[in-house]
Amino acid sequence: QWVYNILEKKAETERIVHENPDPSNGFVLVPDLKWNQNQLDDLYLVAVVHRREIKSLRDLTAEHLPLLRNVLQEGKEAIAKRFGVPGSQLRIYLHYQPSYYHLHVHFTALGHDAPGSSVERAHLLADVIDNLAMDSTFYQKRALTFPLRADEPLFKKFQEAGKV
Questions:
Q1: Residue 115 domain boundaries
Q2: Catalytic: which of 104, 106, 112, 123?
Q3: CA torsion sign, 117 to 120 to 71 to 26?
Q4: Pick the residue with more confidence: 116 or 56?
Q5: Does residue 123 carry a catalytic annotation?
Q6: What's the pLDDT band for 27 if we cut at 50, 70, 90?
Q7: Is the pLDDT of residue 43 over 90?
Q8: Which end of the chain has the smaller Cβ count within 10 Å, N or C?
Q9: What's the CATH number where 123 sits?
Q10: Which of 83, 75, 66 is nearest to 107 (CA)?
Q11: What is the DSSP secondary-structure string of 58-84?
């Protein structure tokens, strides 16, 4: 609901750093709740796309390349303009598995060891774009490794199925 409240301007409108209102290729860029915005060392923003049917990395195809390229380019430009941090100093990625199933992209300071920014969970947006440009169904076919804690419900499902 938090995501939809932001997209519908029912909450956190004062926190919006950038918005592209295009319903197909647009997004809202907001500071992540984990970032207090007092220093740039742990800069952390999230781009939430307007399209509601894209739940995760698995849903992406070449059709979404204009959207992904917008998020990458406009997100970097907005952060450079507002915070003075150039795109070369950002880690821009998607999580798999995501913490919520509405496509969003993380922008963190390159030196910040943000939760979920490790290789087991983070997929760099530039790599995602390249992979989809080569093969439109890359993320429908690719085996994706991801970590799970022992107390997570999905881990228990894997255990029950004899997959762990």
A1: 1-161
A2: 104
A3: negative
A4: 56
A5: no
A6: very high
A7: yes
A8: N
A9: 3.30.428.10
A10: 75
A11: GG--GGGHHHHHHHHHHHHHHHHHHH-
Q: Which SS3 state, helix, strand or coil, does residue 114 take?
A: coil
Total Cβ atoms within 10 A of residue 49: 25
Looking at the 3D structure of the chain, how many domains does it have?
1
pLDDT: is 58 or 143 the higher one?
Answer: 58
Are 32 and 103 in contact by the 8 Å Cβ rule? The answer is no
Which DSSP state fits 17? -
Identify whether the C-beta of residue 66 lies closer than 8 Å to the C-beta of residue 56.
Answer: no
Q: Rounded to two decimals, what is the model's pTM?
A: 0.89
For 54, other C-beta atoms within 10 Å of its C-beta total 19
- Quickly count: other Cβ atoms within 10 Å of residue 110's Cβ: 13
Could you tell me the CA-to-CA distances from 27 to 24, 42, 120 in Å, in that order? Answer: 9, 22, 26
104 sits in which H/E element: strand 104-109
pLDDT at 33: 86
Q: Tell me the per-residue pLDDT of 73-94, one tens digit each, with 9 for 90 and over.
A: 999 999 999 999 999 999 999 9
pLDDT single digits (tens) 47-64: 999 999 999 999 999 999
